[in-house]
């Protein structure tokens, strides 16, 4: 016959209850004063934005840059120290207007050299597209890629455009002539391709 377990005395039950771990007190947040708005939540930072377009003025120092060239090397403004430099910004490689402009600057390359002036082209096309563009049209002008558009914006070559009634942002055909002292000598905005390279050459000779 199974034995019954002895029942605990009242004093033993009281001791057991007394040794139990007390529950932690739950602290409620302090009440917000009437009329006070809750603190705004901090939103995670998004991707870095492209620098705003700068308003360059003739006589100011040209913005520094370092960009990849179509041959795989990198080119910086400081590489042209002591020489004048023409930078022409064009919308897209191997399009009709950009091709004519590149061919015109290539045709006059030797004349620019006689005027102690180098010429480079910059667009947002990747280096591979620039290489294909140069080879296809046998261009002698170095072509630089600014896919992030930071240099394009710094030189004021980015802005609002319109085509067939559609308004959008893009590269504005722009040419900058930088003197041997590193300052902006001439600026051409909203360039018309025909005769432009010849006009830039004359300005380089006079600077």
Please describe what this structure looks like.
With 207 residues, this protein is of the alpha/beta class. 26% of the residues lie in helices and 21% in strands. It has helices at 10-18, 96-107, 109-114, 127-137, 150-154, 196-206; strands spanning 66-68, 74-76, 84-89, 117-123, 143-145, 158-163, 166-171, 174-178, 184-188. The strands form 3 sheets. It has a 5-stranded mixed β-sheet with strand order 5-4-3-8-9. A hairpin with a 2-residue loop joins strand 6 and strand 7 (166-171). The protein is built from 6 helices and 9 strands. Mean pLDDT is 83; it is low at 15-19 and 39-50. It has a domain at 82-206: 3-Layer(aba) Sandwich (Glutaredoxin).
Key words describing this protein structure:
five-stranded mixed beta sheet, about 25% helix, globular, about 210 residues, Glutaredoxin, single chain, two-stranded antiparallel sheet, 6 helices, alpha/beta
Short description:
The chain is an alpha/beta fold and 207 residues long. The protein starts with 9 loop residues before the first helix and ends with a helix.
